[in-house]
Amino acid sequence: MTMDRTIRTAGELVGAGLVGAADEQAISRVASRYAVAISPTLARLIDRDDPHDPIARQFVPDAAELTLAPEERADPIGDGAHSPVAGIVHRYPDRVLMKAVHVCPVYCRFCFRREMVGPQGLGTLTPAELDVAIAYIATHPEIWEVILTGGDPLVLSPRRLGEIMERLGKIDHVKIVRFHTRVPVVEPDRIDAELIAALKASGKATYVALHANHPRELTTEARAAAARLIDAGIVMVSQSVLLKGVNDDADVLAELMRAFVETRIKPYYLHHPDLAPGTSHFRLSIDEGRALVASLRGRVSGLCQPTYILDIPGGHGKAVIGASAIEAEGVGCYTVSDFRGNKHAYPPKD
Ligand code: SF4
User: Fold this and answer.
1) Is 117 near ligand 1, meaning CB less than 6 Å away?
2) For residue 7, what is the DSSP state?
3) Which among 205, 217, 279, 267 has a CA at the least distance from the CA of 33?
4) Contact, 57 vs 48, CB < 8 A?
5) Is 108 a known active-site residue?
6) Which of the following is catalytic: 57, 113, 178, 283?
7) Structural domains present in the chain
8) Which of 50, 188, 233, 290 could disulfide-pair with 221, CB 3.0 to 4.6 Å?
9) Is ligand 1 within 6 A of the CB of residue 111?
């Protein structure tokens, strides 16, 4: 089967050699519950000879998704608790999420918004809802940053993105517009001059946060797409999810962070996996996560260090959860661990 269009059904997964015929029925049940999309670029990246391929694991549905754990929840990071109007999440005083669209070019099997995205998800904001969302931002002068997420905002046409940027551009107190996306990796050709121009607005700084979880996602084409954005004056940061069977390995994690830095993308967030329904096969313990993140400290440059975070269930925001290198030993006295794990008094005792 040629891979020139996005794979969306169990039958297409079987046809593309990504799922065995015997599993088609179970995968069909998963696909009717959670959206499936694997772009041609990603389908080509999957090594069909590797039963543990880290790209396949992120995008090819698995019957394990039908198993729900008691601690899982439909809205794991509590967006709903902070949504004053449709499409806006106002959790922190100086910034809002703006979810103009709930569609993605690919669907991650561990998605924290899997109950909201996809063809059966919350859809795209209507023109009237978009008016209300923009009006909310315009009437809240404390909003310094608008984060377009979703869904993946870069699935919108350059014309629609340009309209949103033009309207945000007229709001003086908004200084930063950030886009969260997978497009440079999964559909790198979409990052063309027209789309890049649409992401910019006079007087605003545009940031693009690229979601990628394995170094193999940073292909030559993906790196070139990122370079087009960066050369146009857009700042790029990364966000990754720590995932069992994908990047829960010190060498893979180090290679991923180096790949970002080589691409001029500053590693930003490394998320502990959220309690999304049917994703327990991706979750590792926080202790395992902390050990992996600590192993990066001595292994790779300071430029390559992400911040390990947990979104506190219930909508309470992000907490930094990396292991602390310093412990209080009394008033004004500390023990600090170096990157080899050796401990030192601070201030020094001699
Ligand atoms: S790109 Fe983001 S919103 Fe879309 S499926 Fe993946 S994690 Fe979910």
Assistant:
1) yes
2) B
3) 279
4) no
5) yes
6) 113
7) 10-66 (no CATH), 80-320 (3.20.20.70)
8) 188
9) yes
Q: What angle do CA 126, 131, 136 make, to 5 degrees?
A: 125
Cβ atoms of residues 198 and 224 within 8 Å:
no
* Closest atom of ligand 1 to CA, residue 149: 3
pTM of the predicted model as reported, rounded to 2 decimal places: 0.95
Cα 79 from Cα 170, distance rounded (Å): 26
Q: Is any ligand 1 atom within 6 A of the Cβ of residue 107? A: yes
CB of 92 within 8 A of CB of 317?
Answer: yes
Query: Best of 6, 97, 101, 107 to mutate for ligand 1, by most ligand atoms within 8 A of CB?
Result: 107
* Probe residue for ligand 1, chosen from 33, 182, 279 as the CB with the greatest number of ligand atoms within 8 Å: 182
Is residue 113 in contact with ligand 1, taking CB distance under 6 Å? yes
- State the DSSP code for 217: G
31-58 pLDDT tens trace:
999 999 999 999 999 999 999 999 999 9
Quick: pLDDT tens for 209-239.
999 999 999 999 999 999 999 999 999 999 9
Cα 183 to Cα 180: distance, rounded to the nearest angstrom: 9
